[in-house]
Request: fold
Amino acid sequence: MQYLARITIHNGTFQDYEALHKQMLRIGFKRTIKSDAGHLYALPDATYEADSTADINSVHAAVKAAAVSAAPHRQQPQVLVVKYEAALWSGLPLAK
Reply:
């Protein structure tokens, strides 16, 4: 199953988001998405993609824990997790 996650750390600093990127990578989420042609595109800030066999509740719990651990001194982060079968996009740059 493919998942997209979007996270907002309220008044988050550069360091908070760098910590978030590391935490999300640790749980298997990338900052890129692959096209049907095999090209990797960079996702918008604090948006992540993963392929997992876990159910959406487990994925959400892992993402929420990663977000909270990245910025524990901040207000509760906003976390959105979506399970999807197909995605379309435009305007995303090729990943470096």
Summary: The first helix runs from residue 14 to 26. The first strand starts at residue 2 and ends at 8. The two ends are 25 Å apart (CA to CA). The chain has a mean pLDDT of 95.
